[in-house]
Amino acid sequence: MNEIVELRDHTQEIRSFRIRLAICAVVVVVLFVLLFSRFFYLQVLQSEHYTTLAEANRIAIQPLTPNRGLIFDRNGEILAQNYTAYTLEIIPDQVKNLGSAIDELATVIEITPEDRQRFNKLKRESTRFKSLPIRSRLTEIEVARFAENQYRFPGMDIKAYPLRHYPKGELISHVIGYIGRINDRDLEQLEADKRLKNYRGSTHIGRIGVEKSYEGALHGQTGFEQVETDAVGRSVRTLSRVAPVAGNDLTLSLDIGLQQAAVQAFGDYRGALVALDPTSGEILAFVSKPGFDPNLFVDGIDHANWRLLNESIDRPLNNRALRGVYPPGSTFKPFMALAGLELGKRSIRYSFSDPGFFSLPGSSHRFRDWKPGGHGWVDLHKSLVISCDTYYYMLAHDLGITNIHNFIGQFGFGKETGIDIPGEATGLLPSPEWKKKRFKQNWLPGDTISVGIGQGFNLATPLQLTFAMMLLANDGKAYRPHFVKQQVDHYKGLVEDSSAEEMYRLNVKQEYLDYVKRALADVTRPGGTASRAGANAAYTFAGKTGTSQVVNIKQGERYNASRINERHRDHALFTAFAPVENPRIVLTVLVENSGSGGSTAAPIARKVLDYFFLGKMPESAEKAG
Amino acid sequence: MSSPDIRKIWHYLVRYIDNFLLAGIFLLMLTGLIVLYSAAGGSHARVISQLINMVIACVVMWTVANIPPQQIMRLALPVYVLGIILLVAVALFGEIQNGARRWLNLGFVHVQPSELLKIAVPLMMAWYFDKAHITLRWRDYVVAALILLLPVLLIIRQPDLGTALLILISGFYVIFLAGLPWRILAGLVVAAAVSMPLLWNFGMHDYQRKRIMTMLDPSQDALGAGYHTIQSSIAIGSGGISGKGWLKGTQSQLDFLPEPSTDFIFSVFSEEFGLIGNSLLLSLYLIVIGRCLVITTKAPTRFARLVAGSISLTLFTYVFVNMGMVSGILPVVGIPLPLISYGGTSMVTILLGFGILMSIHTHPKLVKT
Q: What is the pTM of this model?
């Protein structure tokens, strides 16, 4: 009985087991069919989609950054060059604890607090996925040391970049400017200009100066390489390649020797100097003193240096030659003289006895001459040589502001000269309309009188003064001032000379121009305001001194340089051309807070001219550059 | 040696070997070596090292196949007890790797005791059912469940959810095949459905929850956890019908696939051999599993039936879970593709299972308990 039950149970157990096993077998088949359908879905229905994704994974377009064009001075001396710099970069997103990771990094490679600050600033300004530099200009030893320890620092890598270097540093910082890292604003601008494609892979862009204005020429044509990449983004092999084309090399008209001579001639003074060739508008020297080291800016300036430059009372970042506006003072007089002659308000023969002041009819207010008691009998020639104020008070009154504005505007006052670096100031040549608009006040007859001697509302940049003087020196030809003399275009394989661009020609009688030039030549001779600077010159030169008031002197008060704050003392001005007969150079010197044009500005101009004509380098206590 | 001698030795060697199964196993291994060569980026070293793993595993299989099932049954309890002791030792002195305590340093070798339990648990449960009364009672299922849950809980604690789940499944197969009443099964299904949300909220680690979320929507975390699934799907999908050709899969050759020689080796295969290759491979597995099930139905004793059934179905589970994982229908769990993925431990475990199956099939069916 027991036996039978067991036997029956046994067969039943086997039957039950086989049923269950069969169920499992069915499940196995069903699930395999499910897998097959999944494969069918992926490999047949979605195959195209996934093939596209696989290709996108595989192929990357890598930009090939072109070398930035080099910049030379007119004699081939290099002013901006490239070298390979090794930069340590971090992708913040790929580093877990950034702070401690950088601490650890600092045990391998020196990381200064400034480096950290700069890095944190960059980090705030960009996305987490972007590779950001923490240390630049690694030495080869540092590169090797990091490479050895790289496994400890995921998300960090050394990259080689061509970096810009300005070997002349401070000497020409205001001309060349500098390049800086491309930021989000630049990207927006590039996008708007449809130039973004050419900047894939570029890290820097021109910020100011020639580097900025010639950005399009200097940058070059970005090349592209189609590469197969692996999952980490390393390229495995190149599929196709379009080589980059280096940017244009620029040759400037600037003479670095003349520039150096000018800086040395200034000594410790602050100020500006512009020298150009009146036969073409080529800039020969362009100084704004003090300058700054443009190399500091290339990789993002650190906070300490930035404060030092930005908060300095000497304002080294201010381009005085281009953007500094000063009352032109007596350097305005030659143009007033031409206005008087050309508009028939004065004749060459006219003269008067100078009482030392001028009063408007029916007014007791005295516009005083710089010389108390006046200069005696004064004609137009003498008014320029000794810089008589009274003559020009009267002339201004006779001309009226509208005539002055219209005639003298032709010399470029109150307008941009169109020089080929950005940021030029327009200065101010006042008119009744301007005053109405600016102050909502009517023009007063008294306003005209101050304008006559280049004071009052008058403002001009040293560049504008030089431009105006060029028009006088070359008998009215308005050449556009420019720095770039020649470009070597690697793309077209051409050398392009920038020819002189004559913007317009002034219509003034040659007789009058010659008359004024003769008078200016006498300024540097005995009896003239710049006679000391002109003594024993081996060449002839003509010029006009000027004094630019920083603070107004009250009625009845006397200007006493020793009694007022150094920063409130007058600026000295001198603008000149040489040789008188056939001018090859026009220059303007502005010396801040130094007194009168004849005593400080003209001697500096003389030194620069001595270098230009005789090759004589002025002595200097501190060797600049 | 004369040819009769050779024939004798040959006969001795293959006495307890199932040729049909062996042929299937060899075909799969060969496929594995071919894919591995590609997955390892044309490295011979990997292939040779895998070949050595295979030889060792075959020796193990041969040895086990030569042990009569009764002997194997006698080993069930000691091996199980040893496994439990090792698991406890891991919990107490184990080495931590990647945040989990799974390995035990025995001085000369590092072992992962959970691997041993993959075989020991079904053996032990089958042993218990075999020893139980001919008509199984309630109590027997409870005891079997305890035998199963003890190691599973220890492994969950390591934590190694993947292995624990696989052991749970292989143990479940034993209980199911032993004849677990249908209503209890239904009750278990309901209980599982109810406990899911609880398990989700309280019983899982963040990374485990993340894996499941990622499976449901890989693009949610495209650069993190979802990256593997997406890249693997791209590999399979871009393979198309006929594949990109051996050594020509861009996803695998350019390192877009994670673990291309172990867990994700099937994506490499799939990318290079396409739907045609996949169908052939699926068929081959189906044949091998089918053969295992045939062996199971012919098994003479309850112990043999349950062990053979569990081993066959667990093999299927490995294949399904691995392929499901790389093709994006199951969450990413670290399960190798049997006989194809690189790795000595899994190779030995799998072939050990085949050895038991062969032993059951080839030894004379004299004994009846």
A: 0.64
